[in-house]
Design brief:
Keywords: 4Fe-4S, Iron, Iron-sulfur, Metal-binding, Oxidoreductase, Repeat. By secondary structure, the chain is an alpha+beta fold. The protein has a domain of 68 residues: Alpha-Beta Plaits (2-Layer Sandwich), CATH 3.30.70.20. It contains four helices and four strands. A two-stranded antiparallel ribbon has the order 1-4. A two-stranded antiparallel sheet has the order 2-3. A hairpin with a 4-residue loop joins strand 2 and strand 3. It is elongated. The termini are far apart. Bound molecules: iron/sulfur cluster (SF4) (2 copies). The site of one iron/sulfur cluster (SF4) has 13 residues, from helix 4. The site of one iron/sulfur cluster has 13 residues, from helix 3.
């Protein structure tokens, strides 16, 4: 196999002199958080919440926060995937469009 057809992109980047620690796509960290681009956000009905913590368990980005009588969401890091609303056994979580 010729070098030109090497299967690993990292190989070609190295051949081109790109340093190992330089991301070729985005060379600077972005300060953007999911709260900046999210389309939907969860809201919790505090009367329905029984603090079972299922939303906390399933949230893929660990943005569910425990409060004295209910669970709520860190809207800076919540990406609006809706998994918490799907999994809440009490149907206490509703996803609403960000514009509202
Ligand atoms: S899954 Fe629903 S009922 Fe359970 S803690 Fe979360 S919001 Fe409350
Ligand atoms: S919408 Fe997704 S990211 Fe946001 S709290 Fe629910 S599970 Fe977590």
């Amino acid at each position: 196999m010729s070098d030109r057809h090497h299967p690993y992109p990292a190989y070609h980047l190295k051949q081109a002199g790109v340093p190992d620690d330089l991301c070729p796509v985005a060379t600077e960290l972005s300060p953007m958080r999911p709260g900046d681009w999210r389309s939907f956000r969860p809201i919790v009905d505090r009367d329905k919440c029984v603090k079972c913590a299922v939303c906390w368990l399933y949230c893929p980005v660990q943005c569910v926060e425990e409060h004295a009588a209910w669970f709520d969401f860190n809207l800076q890091t919540c990406k609006g995937c809706g998994i918490c609303a799907q999994e809440c056994p009490q149907r206490a979580i509703t996803m609403i469009p960000e514009a509202q």
